[in-house]
Amino acid sequence: MSTSWSIYVIALVAANIIGCVWLLVANRKSKTGGEGESVGHEFDGIEELNTPMPGWWIWMFWITIAFAIAYLLAFPGLGNYAGFLGWTSIQQYETEIASADAQYGPLFAGFYATPVPDLLGDDQAIEIGSRLFANNCAICHGSDARGGRHYPNLTDDDWLYGGTPEIIVQTVTDGRNGVMPPLGAAIGGEQGVREMAQHVLSLSGRKHDAAMAAVAAPKFQTLCAVCHGPTGTGNQAMGAPNLTDDIWLHGGRVEHIEEQITLGRNNQMPAHRDILTPEKIHLVALYVYSLSNSKQ
Description:
There is one protein chain. The protein is mainly alpha-helical. It folds into three domains: 1-27 and 51-87; 97-175 and 270-291, Orthogonal Bundle (Cytochrome Bc1 Complex, Chain D, domain 2), CATH 1.10.760.10; 178-269, Cytochrome c-like domain (Cytochrome Bc1 Complex, Chain D, domain 2), CATH 1.10.760.10. The chain has helices at 3-26, 55-74, 89-112, 123-136, 138-141, 165-174, 184-187, 189-203, 210-228, 254-263, 278-291, and strands at residues 37-43, 46-50, 176-180, 265-269. The strands form two sheets. It has a two-stranded antiparallel ribbon. Strands 3-4 form a two-stranded antiparallel sheet. The two termini are 58 Å apart.
């Protein structure tokens, strides 16, 4: 925080505390409790009185103000002043993480020493992995890991980069960056895109215009086969999707396919190496692997 903003915050806090003190002093009475003075209003025999606040109530306000001042001196709250206790949320977070690591570290280490396939029958390990997944992965892939448009379904057997435990660990650790270049102009503009979309539909056996698909077939071999393969079955080494299985990461409607061909795609899954330890990534990989595999 800049010095000017720090001074502004300190002044604002001080003004509020002084205002509360003034309010109490300005409204103090020589007498507290008991009968108050009449304000001159009476209705149905009921007279409105200006009764002073009880003394204990006023003292509660003074105690609250004193507590606020003590708190602001001990903890951050007055601009750049850190408080004489030196407390920070980062410090508290790191302390709690260190405490948790000390408590659960041996448990994670034990799981880490066991290969993922051998942990498929360990309900505790899978449960821990599912909670780590819920906290770190569910925001994109969903609480049930079934994903959605632009986010892969992790419960089926369709893998962009491969579904072995080692590859899943690599994906979670380093992230992925899937890139498809825009091909609208190279394919031949709007008409070429429409023809190519029909050819892509034909690869998975969906209803399509056969004449338009036939026109685009040679272009597919020239421009698309280098990534998706001559028959459209994809390439996991490059993260190129299989176009023959009727599973569509970015939407399977013809307009979605045309959009993908025209504009391309640049999707990124963030790396988790700085978020999760290798031991925790091991358990996340176990949970993901367990979704489409069972104990042999």
